[in-house]
Amino acid sequence: MTDTSTRSAAQRMSSEELARISMRARRLILQSIHDAGAGHIGGPLSVTDILVTLYFDTMNIRPDEPDWPGRDRCILSKGHSSIALYTVLALRGYFPVAEFATFDQLNSRLQGHPDMSKLPGLDMSTGSLGQGLSPGLGMGLGGRLKGEDFHTWVILGDGEIQEGQIWEAAFVAARYNLANVTAILDANGLPQFGWPHPAGYTRETPYDDPAAKFRAFGWHVVECDGHDHADLQRAFAASKAERSKPTCVVAHTVKGKGVSFMEGNYLWHAQVPADDDLTRAFAELRIEGEAQ
Amino acid sequence: MISVTPVEHGAETPMRDAWGQNLVDLGGEFSSLVVLDGDLANSTKADVFAKALPERFFEMGIAEQNMLGVAAGFATVGFVPWVSTFAAFLAKRALDQIRVVIAQPGLNVKMCGSYSGILTGKTGKTHISVEDIAVFRCMPGVVTIAPADDLELRGAMRAMMHDDRPTYLRLTRDPGPTIFPADYEFAIGQAALLRDGGDIGIISTGVETIRALDAARQLAADGVEASVLHVPTIKPLDVEAVVAVAEKTGAIVTAEDHSILGGLGGAVAECLAEHRPTRMRRIGIRDVYGESAPNDAMLEKYRLSSRHIADAARALLGAGAGIGARA
Predict the structure, then answer these.
(1) In the predicted model, is pLDDT for residue B327 greater than 50?
(2) What is residue B301's predicted lDDT score, i.e. its pLDDT?
(3) Looking at beta carbons, which pairs linking A259-264 to residues 24 or more positions away fall under 8 Å?
(4) Burial of B13 (0-12, 13-18, 19+ CB in 10 A)
(5) Probe site for chain B from A165, A166, A175, A181 (most B CB atoms < 10 A)
(6) Assigned fold of B13-177
(7) Which chain A residue is nearest to residue B31, measuring alpha carbons?
């Protein structure tokens, strides 16, 4: 078996290559939601570059051996962005892209929210928000106990950290100095519904400084541009270099990133693109030098 | 189903002490066993394990939801996590975590609910768990076990280590007499016939079985011969054993330190309604929450004593085939 597990620095992907993969991923995401007639858009587009950087560059994985015990783990705690994870797994070779035709259909391995009991390559089932960080801690504690050096990456939405369990986990991770666990916050700043406000209505969180919150819980914090692949590579490397504390990478992102009329527009949280929406979006998601 | 002759006047052993010691014994045997605690180790007796095998003991603090999630993560990397807290908090505070990251993916987590039922040492209704069996029994894929004594607990814990399903283990706080003989072999899903009588069948679970045996002795003094079927595994239920006792006796009283809704009584009623409709009475908590009081007073007020079981049996036998007097 070809050892795809270790990629030396020379083999690492350039940020330009990663950007091209992200472009392909975004088109596949929009096409899948369009074809399935249901699903989320805004969150998957904000987390795309994070997932692409992890699966194509940072993580130590073997796509042809998804249960390899030594692999890095990834938990998409914001499970409603499943289509982005499926897209990146398919592009990385975990399963054929053709399987997207089954998304959200009866007996599909591609469930609306990630189901580890159905699809190889998923390290945890998620969907009920706020629950992903805790299993990440269990993987980190278990890996340490076994003397294995795999790393566990947990992707959180900035909306779901309203759930109290996130802070239970943050408290315990710091207590155990879990440096082999990284939380990546997809900070797109747009919840589904938001908050009542004297002036009518707002989607701004009451007090929003997640970096300060994680720091106060004893975490190492790195901030980055969640759509700049080089910056994500830098942040993830800084996270792995930290040996005494868990790291939170606060990745500043834009909901609906990559499609101008979806960016920052909460209406595209889970709206299905019509045919002409798809045409307009694909016109913006062009890869230079590649036939469209 | 197996037939077992119960021990008379067995020694009084606290189930929680036995639980802690069993963990140490199994932990010595299985390097995959880890224990997670929610800052109650000196109450649940997980502290015995913490002292013996500290590198595999993980204090999770007063945060049950996180603790169950951490356990799920441990299970995915080859460990068998044993989680303990009070049954009331396990079955309700962390319920969605159990549903999404343990039951739905079918991860091998052993969930131990201590201080179950109404005899919780004067803690009151916040700490009394009357609905945990119902909660776990209705979750697809979750094995639900309520042992009667320290000896059966030992067998149950060993069987759990050899089984890879998510499992709820229901424990109690206070000492009770050992009723199982040393050669009893526990098996998941297997009920134990502790007494064979043809007049009425008493089907019980957990420590209430001790009172069911007392009730059978009281009935025998009146010339009424009762079968006593102990059902340690509420799910999967030993359907054949339940139906066999119903066939033989034609009248069933269930007994449990749990709500009559959804627990053993519910399971037996569902089973018999489908397989062999049988006249029944259910002894258990009658759709109310508990309170803090001494054990004897609690058993009396909430109608869980051996006398209440025997009275229910007499009432059922006296009621004939109609829908008559209530237990």
Answers:
(1) no
(2) 97
(3) A259/A26, A259/A30, A259/A45, A259/A284, A259/A285, A260/A284, A262/A41, A262/A42, A262/A45, A264/A190
(4) middle
(5) A165
(6) Rossmann fold (3.40.50)
(7) A146
Contact B227, B278 (CB under 8 A): no
Q: Is the pLDDT confidence value at B325 over 50?
A: no
pLDDT of residue A206: 64
- Collapsing DSSP to helix, strand or coil, B211 comes out as helix
Lookup: tokens for A251: 């990745």
Tell me the C-alpha to C-alpha distance, in Å, between residue B204 and each of A247, B145, B148, B230, B254.
51, 12, 9, 5, 6
Chain B nearest C-alpha distance from A195 (Å): 25
Q: Do the beta carbons of residue B151 and residue B178 sit within 8 Å? A: yes
Q: What is the value of pTM for the model shown? A: 0.94
* Structural domain contains residue A168: yes
Q: Could you tell me the two tokens for B216?
A: 């059978």
Report the SS3 class of residue A226. Answer: coil
pLDDT above 90: percentage of residues in chain A: 80
Range of the domain at A249: 15-284
Cβ–Cβ contacts within 10 Å for residue B265, how many?
27
Cβ-in-10-Å burial (0-12, 13-18, 19+) of A141 comes to buried
End-to-end Cα distance, chain B: 27
Assess contact for A235 and A249: CB atoms under 8 A: yes
List pLDDT tens digits, range A161-214.
Answer: 999 999 999 999 999 999 999 999 999 988 777 777 787 777 776 667 999 999
Mutate: best of A115, A137, A162, partner B, most B CBs <10 A: A137
Report the distance separating Cα A218 and Cα B252, nearest Å. 58
Q: Count the Cβ atoms, other than its own, within 10 Å of residue A215.
A: 13
- Assign domain B192-318 one CATH number from 3.30.428.10, 3.40.50.920, 3.60.20.10, 3.40.190.10: 3.40.50.920
Q: Are A42 and A77 in contact (CB under 8 A)?
A: no
Angstroms from B81 CA to nearest CA on chain A:
10
* Cβ separation B73–A137 shorter than 8 A: yes
Give the pLDDT band (50/70/90) at residue B320: low
pLDDT of res. A11: 57
Domain positions in chain B are 13-177, 192-318
Percent of chain B with pLDDT over 70: 98
pLDDT for res B326? 39
- Closest Cβ–Cβ partner in A73, A127, A134 for B69: A134
Cβ contact B105–A164 (<8 Å): no
The C-alpha atoms of residue B304 and residue B172 are separated, in whole angstroms, by: 15
Q: What is the ipTM of this complex?
A: 0.94
Contact A138 B81 (CB under 8 A): yes
Which pLDDT tens digit goes with each residue over B216-232?
999 999 999 999 999 99
Q: Could you give the number of structural domains in chain A? A: 1
**CA pair distance A195, B29, nearest whole angstrom:** 54
Instruction: Of A203-212, A227-236, B120-129, give the range with the top mean pLDDT.
Output: A227-236
